[in-house]
Amino acid sequence: MLTTIFSNYSGFLVSAGYFVLVLGILVFVHELGHFLLAKKLGVGVITFSLGFGPRLIGRKIGETQYQVSGVPLGGYVKLIGEDRGEEVKEEDRTRSFSFQPIWKRVLIICAGPFFNMFLTLVVLCFSFILFGIPYDTLPLPAKIGDLSPGFPAAQAGLRRGDVILSVNGASVATWDDLSNKIRSSGGETLLIKVKRKEEHLAFRINPKMSKERTDQGEKTVYLIGISAPYDETTYLYKKIGIGEAVYEGGLRSWYLTKLTVIVLVKMVSGEISAKTIGGPIQIAQEAGKQGKKGLPYLLGLIAILGINLGLINLFPIPILDGGHLLFLVMEAVLGRPVSIKKMEIAQQIGLILIILLMLYAFHNDLRRIFFPGGYGF
Q1: What are the strands, taking DSSP E only, across 99-245?
Q2: Residues with catalytic annotation?
C-alpha cells in the first residue's frame, strides 16, 4: 500500500515538474515576443513576468522588473501606457503603447502568438537534426488503453492497463493481432485471458456487431469496446541532413497549423465534441508521459502546444491577444478608439468566458480521470 502511494506521489511530482517546464517554455517564448517587439519599436516595458499573482523572485534591470510569480499558469508583459486610462508622464508619451500608431500596436500584439508558432518550427528542426525524423512506429502491445462504457469489455470487468495474453487459446503479442481476432470473431463468445499486475484472469465476452464503412462499402465487424494504448506509441527515427531537417520541420509545422485550424473549426461547429477539450491536468499528464519517454517526445509535445497556444491566442475574445486586435481593427474602421467603458465591459465578458472555459476544461480532465471512456474494438 505504501509503495503504491509513494509511486503515485512520485509520478505526480514528475508530471508536475514536466508541466511547469513545458508551460514555462511556452509562456516565456510568448511573452518574449511581446517584449522584443515592444523594445524594438520604442515602447517601454515596465514588467516581464512568468506567472501571475504575488512575486516570488525578481530583479529590476533598467526600467523593467523581471520576475517569477506565484501562479504558474501564464505570464504577462506590462507596457508603459498599455491601459488607455492610466496616467503617463509627459516624457514617456512617445514610449507609451497607447500613443503608438495602430500598425505598431498590431505588431506588438501579434508577436506573442507568432513567437509560439515559430517555436514549433525551431523545436521540430532541432529535434530532427538531433534525433532524426520519425518514419514508422513499433507495433503496439496487446494492452487495453481505454474502454467504452456500455460495451461488452467494460461490462465483463476488463480494465484499462490489462495486458491481453490470449483469445480463445491463441496467444496475441501485438494490438494488431488482438484487433484482428476480435473483429473477425463472427460474434462467437471469446475467452480472453489477461494479466492484471501480478494476477492472471479469464473473461468470457460476447462481441457486439457493428457496421464499418470501407472503400468497398459497408463491412460487418465485431467489437468489445476497447482501444489501443496509443500513449505507448514508440517511433522509429532515421538520421537526415541539416537541410532536410529544416525542410521537414517547415512542412510539419505547416501541417500542424492546418490540422489545428481544422480541429478548432470543427469544435466550434460541433463536428468534434467539446468533451475533447483538455485543461492543465491533461497537459500535465501528457507532459509527464512524454517526458518519461524521452526528449524527442517531449519536444514533439512542445511543438504541438506551441501551435495551439499561438492560434488560440488569436481568437477575437477580449482579454486574449485576438481581442486586442479586434479593438484595433474597430479603431481603424471607426477612426477613433473604442471607448474605455465599452472595452472594460468587453474584457469583463471575455474574462468570464475564459474562466468558464477553464472550468469546463477542468471538468473534462476530472471526467477522464474518474470516468474514463472511449471508442475502440
Answers
A1: 133-137, 146-147, 163-167, 170-171, 190-196, 199-205, 208-214, 217-223, 226-227, 235-238
A2: 31
